[in-house]
Amino acid sequence: MGAKRVGIMTGGGDCPGLNAVIRAAVRVGCERHGFEMLGIEDATNGLIDLDYRSPSGNQWLTPASVRGILARGGTILGTSNKSDPFHFVATVEGKKVETDVSDRVMENYRKLDLDGVISIGGDGSMRIAKQFMDKGMNVVGVPKTIDNDLSATDQTFGFDTAVQIACEALDRLRDTAESHDRVMLVEVMGRDAGWIALHAGMAGGADAILIPEIPYTLSAVADVIKKRRAAGQFYSLIVVAEGAKPRGGQVCALEKKLGEMPRLMGAAHRAAEGLSEALPDIEMRVTVLGHIQRGGSPSSYDRVLATRYGVAAANLVASGQYGMMTALKGGSIQSVPIADAVAEPKVVDPEGELVRAAREIGVSFG
Fold first, then answer.
1. 226-257 per-position pLDDT tens digit
2. Are 173 and 91 within one domain?
3. Distance between CA atoms of 281 and 283, rounded to whole angstroms?
4. Does the reported pTM lie above 0.90?
5. What is the domain count for the chain?
6. What is the residue range of 9's domain?
C-alpha cells in the first residue's frame, strides 16, 4: 500500500523549478494517491525543530495551496544550505560548535507519523538523504542544482534557466564590450563543475571559457585577446566559472565558516588583474552574475522537467520505492538509487565532445 502521510522539503541553494516540483508532487500525491502532504520548512530545519518558524513553519499542502506556483522562482517551503543535521551548528556555552542532531530528526519524523519524505536537492541534500535512509527514514530524491553536477541523471532542473540567464548577460555585455573595445569577464556559478560556464560560453559566443576542470594559464588567454585585436576584433568575452583556478593555483575562497562550504569569490577579478598586467593598454571589466542565476521564473524546459520529476517522485512514494531518486535518462524519466547519484560528482570531461567542439570553433580554455 502507498504511504498516506508524506513530507516534502527543498534543500541547498534555491533554484528555478522548485515550486514546479512541489506543485506536481502535491497534485499527484493528494489527488491520485490520497496522501496527506506536509511541507517541511527551510530544508531539514522543520524536522530538527517542530516549532521552527521562518516565517510560517511546516504546513500541510493541498492542491489549492500550490495553485499558481508553477512559474514562480524560489520555493514556497523555504530552503537552507546550513542545516545539515549531521553537522548542525549550535551554540553551546556561548560557543558555536558542530553537533549531530540526526537522532532528533528521526524522533520528529516518527512523531509526525510520516511514512516517507520527498527530498528535493543537489549533491549535499542527496548525501544527507542517504544518511537518513541508513537510519531508517523512507526517502525519495529529486535532483536539483543549477550546476548540473549530480551523477546518475542526464540533467537537473534549474540548469537550463541558469544557462539562459548567463547567455543573455553575455549577449548584452558583447554590445558594450564592442562599443568600448574592452575585454569583458563574466563570472558564473560552478564550484567544482563548469557546465554553466561551458554551455553559456558556447551559446553566448565567448572567446575564452575558464572552468574548474581545466586549470588555465593567463598567457594563453592573453594570446587570444592579442590575436583577436590583430585580426581587427578589439573586444573579447571571457566566461569564468567561480571555481576556475590558474595552473598550480587554488580557487578564490573566503574564510570557511563553521557548518558551511567555503564561499567562492573573486575568480574573474583575479583573472582580470593578471590580464591587466600582461595587457596594460586594454581595459578590463568584470561582471559577477552571482545569485541572479538562481532567481526568477524557470524556463519552459525546466518547468516541464521539474513537473515530470514531481510526478515521478509521488509515484515512487506510492509504490514504496524508497531510496530512489528520479532521473532523466535518454529523454525518459527513470529512477536510480540515491547512493548512485552521490557516488561521484558529474564534471566536465576536458577531453569530451563539448570541449572539443568549443576548441574547434576557436574557444580557448587557457
1. 999 999 999 999 999 999 999 988 777 666 66
2. no
3. 7
4. yes
5. 2
6. 5-157+298-341
